[in-house]
Write a structure and sequence with these properties.
about 375 residues; alpha/beta; seven-stranded mixed beta sheet
Length: about 375
């Protein structure tokens, strides 16, 4: 069977593209504005056409699926929340302009959960209305990456849309789109493979007993332990360099000079982000297990505001470090060294930011599996 094709927009470093490739798709073209990320993409997909600006993208080759994680800066609860009145997130409608012209059978969009509440829900309603107006039945769901084989709390809204046609009205195409996001139904496409996820308790999350399936068909246990037991299939090494380290995530930030911060090790990292590079806002810390944490509480490890201002945990001896770019790649499900391919200058700051912006490969892989399953049934 000829592989289904994808056209990738807001490609970043290609996390979603890689996941869809694992699911059996072929990347037909990509579109990414950032020049450094373009270098990373050319290193991994040297023969794939790469466009540099979605606002000037016209008539790219036809594809079966168009996908993209459009900019979230105007939608995130951590930002000014200008919504579609801002200059970045409104690029979602440039995506729809291309999709309406190209008419792919499937559309996959990703963004932060703040999309749902932006402008009191009106921005999300506008986006869905526009997708329906382009001739698609639409479904959406919040998926958390920690239930897809990576120990990171990363909740993202995924919108999947199936184009209506002569044999399929909008209501029926919407049901197909929903099947691509919900586990109930005829299951995964390859006989004998374990389910990517168990049935969720509700539409906003998935059961913690989920199992991950690798592209090679072998099952990997879901995340049940601490970050110290993260494991890389690519390298065969513990994610954090061995059993002699502990990984903590910030669960409470100091609000005043008299306040303190709380750090916990509960098995999953906080969401990776662009600014988490070791300054006072950092939400991750890696500590030598031999160190003695100064204050232990049932709610985690606490530090006073003075220590928080330094951007790191207070330990004795001081052996705290931040996550490395390699560890961030692994938290995103990327192969080791993905953001530092041969021939590309890769400063840590760009690698951190690129991981923070990316789509987790395993989530994209799971969605790609389900779209392929539906297409093969047709």
């Amino acid at each position: 069977m000829t592989p289904l094709t994808i056209g990738s927009t807001f490609t970043g470093i290609g996390g979603a593209d890689l996941g869809f490739e694992w699911a059996g798709f072929r990347v037909a073209w990509q579109c990414e504005f950032d020049t450094w990320k373009q270098q990373v993409l050319r290193a991994h997909w040297p023969d794939v056409p790469l466009y540099d600006d979605i606002t000037t993208l016209h008539d790219p080759p036809a594809v079966d699926v168009m996908l993209g994680g459009f900019p979230c800066q105007d939608l995130s609860v951590a930002g000014k929340r200008k919504g579609f009145d801002g200059q970045r997130s409104v690029l979602a409608f440039e995506f729809l302009r291309v999709a309406e012209s190209l008419a792919p059978r499937w559309i996959v969009l990703e963004n932060v959960p703040g999309l749902l509440s932006s402008n009191h829900g009106r921005d999300f309603a506008r986006l869905v209305d526009e997708m329906v107006g382009c001739g698609y039945g639409v479904a959406w769901r919040i998926l958390d990456a920690r239930y897809f084989g990576v120990p990171q709390r990363r909740r993202r809204v995924f919108l999947v849309a199936r184009r209506a046609d002569a044999q399929l009205d909008t209501r029926a195409s919407g049901r197909l789109a929903l099947r691509a996001l919900i586990e109930s139904g005829s299951g995964d496409p390859t006989p004998g493979w374990p389910s990517r996820q168990d049935t969720p308790a509700d539409a906003g999350g998935c059961a913690p007993t989920s199992r991950a399936v690798s592209p090679h068909g072998d099952a990997a246990e879901g995340v049940t332990g601490t970050l110290t037991r993260m494991y890389s299939e690519q390298s065969g090494q513990d994610y954090l360099g061995g059993a002699g380290v502990l990984a903590f995530r910030k669960s409470k930030r100091a609000q005043t000079d008299q306040d303190d911060e709380t750090w916990v090790d509960d098995g999953a990292a906080n969401t990776l982000n662009r600014f988490d590079q070791g300054d006072t806002r950092t939400t991750h810390a890696v500590v030598d297990a031999a160190s003695t944490l100064q204050s232990n509480h049932s709610g985690g490890v606490r530090m006073d505001a003075e220590g928080a201002a330094g951007g790191h945990l207070a330990v004795e001896p001081t052996t705290v470090r931040r996550l490395t770019p390699l560890e961030c790649e692994r938290l995103m499900g990327l192969p080791d060294g993905w953001t530092a391919p041969e021939g590309v200058k890769a400063p840590d700051s760009k690698r951190y930011a690129a991981c923070g912006d990316a789509i987790v490969t395993w989530v994209a892989y799971w969605i790609g599996q389900r779209i392929r399953m539906i297409e093969e049934e047709a």
